[in-house]
């Protein structure tokens, strides 16, 4: 018994040290790994979209499903990007006309906190000194452009090499049992990510459409622009909901002379977010992710610190992948149990498979397919 306890302690310590070292590697190689992770994520989206088109459209064949999914995805992305850029330009112009109201709002907030002489909007802008941050903004735009270019390159190679993965699986896993276990783990990861995307998309559309109706009824300017931003923010756990509830009421205070519009928007958006997030989303999600809510919050903080905004978008899928992979190995399974919601992260690899994988006599063979 003491020997087993010592072995378990050393194994757990090794897992913890490997996790710390892995986090350091992820942080150092963020510029390389972030585009690759985004490309894999987009490839899974396109693959799921292609299978959905093939299943729901009778005239779409297996070969035509993937090109059609790629074309539709590019068209949707380009259209959304042009719409956001165009509306962001007009929104920036409207902020200039709202300068007197912004000064009044700043004065009211300053009075609440006890500031006798509140600064104006112009003075705040001057204190921020936007000219000194132009270099950082240009660097951010350049980094975004280079990341997008690398994502497209990685995505092209991933989609082009899809057929080769079957032969690689034969070479990596020497027995049929090993390949079945690896395939089951991969399918669970794929299904979990796709289910997460599907639920986030549907619930995000629900929140965006109902929020647009509320903002349009109140008369808020750029209601459709805000609705699209709310939909995009819905893919970021926790933080996205806070942004969706806070920003439209704030700009309603700037636009309108009275406060009831902002109060109505805040209350309606809060009710929408709570109802969709606490009632509809858990029922749609079911047990597909099996992720503890506290883990989702910690994962958001961790991946945001390591990879920034892309890490925030990918925090839940990446944590799902980690849980499924760690559950396959006996030494790291306890980590997967802690990440899961019900303590059942999935089946571990059988001892026979581990023994076969560790023996030098095991060799890839096509006859085991």
Please work out how many helical segments DSSP would assign. 14
Helix content: over 70%
Element order: H for helix, E for strand: HHHHHHHHHHHHHH
Provide the low-confidence segments as ranges. Answer: 350-369
Beta-strand content estimate: under 5%
Strand tally, please? Answer: 0
The radius of gyration is: 25 Å
N-to-C span: 41 Å
* Arithmetic mean pLDDT: 75
- The rough form would be described as globular
Largest sheet: none
| Helix/sheet category | mainly alpha
What labels describe this entry?
single chain; mainly alpha; 14 helices; 80% helix; disordered C terminus
Describe the fold and architecture:
The chain is mainly α and 369 residues long. 80% of the residues lie in helices and 0% in strands. It has 14 helices and no strands. The protein has helices at 2-28, 30-56, 62-97, 99-113, 121-128, 134-160, 164-172, 176-218, 223-233, 239-255, 260-285, 293-326, 333-339, 351-358. The longest helix has 43 residues, at 176-218. Mean pLDDT is 75; it is low at 350-369.
């Amino acid at each position: 018994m003491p020997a087993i306890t010592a072995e378990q302690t050393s194994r757990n310590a090794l897992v913890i040290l490997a996790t710390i070292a892995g986090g350091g590697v992820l942080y150092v190689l963020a510029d390389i790994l972030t585009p690759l992770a985004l490309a894999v994520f987009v490839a899974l989206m396109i693959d799921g979209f292609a299978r959905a088109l093939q299943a729901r459209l009778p005239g779409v064949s297996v070969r035509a499903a993937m090109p059609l999914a790629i074309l539709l995805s590019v068209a949707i992305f380009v259209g959304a990007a042009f719409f956001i850029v165009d509306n962001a330009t007009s929104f920036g112009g409207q902020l200039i006309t709202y300068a007197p109201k912004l000064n009044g709002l700043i004065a009211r907030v300053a009075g609440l906190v006890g500031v006798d002489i509140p600064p104006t909007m112009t003075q705040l802008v001057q204190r921020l000194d936007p000219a000194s941050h132009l270099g950082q903004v240009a660097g951010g735009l350049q980094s975004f452009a280079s990341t997008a270019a690398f994502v497209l390159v990685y995505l092209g190679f991933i989609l082009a090499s899809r057929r080769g993965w079957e032969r690689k699986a034969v070479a990596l896993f020497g027995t049929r049992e090993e390949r079945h276990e690896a395939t089951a783990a991969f399918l669970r990861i794929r299904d979990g990510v796709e289910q997460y995307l599907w639920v986030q998309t549907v619930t995000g559309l629900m929140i965006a459409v109902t929020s647009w109706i509320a903002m349009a009824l109140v008369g808020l300017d750029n209601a459709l622009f805000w609705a699209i931003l709310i939909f995009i923010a819905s893919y970021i756990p926790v933080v996205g909901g806070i942004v969706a509830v806070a920003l439209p009421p704030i700009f309603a205070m700037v636009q309108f002379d009275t406060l009831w519009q902002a109060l109505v928007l805040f209350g309606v958006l809060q009710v929408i977010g709570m109802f969709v997030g606490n009632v509809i989303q858990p029922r749609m999600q079911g047990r597909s992710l099996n992720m503890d809510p506290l883990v989702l919050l910690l994962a958001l903080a961790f991946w945001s610190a390591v990879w920034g905004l892309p890490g925030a978008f990918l925090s839940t899928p990446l944590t799902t992948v980690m849980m499924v992979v760690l559950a396959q190995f006996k030494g790291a399974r306890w980590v997967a149990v802690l990440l899961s919601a019900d303590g059942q992260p999935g089946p571990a690899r059988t001892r026979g498979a581990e023994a076969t994988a560790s023996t030098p006599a095991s060799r890839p063979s096509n006859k085991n397919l």
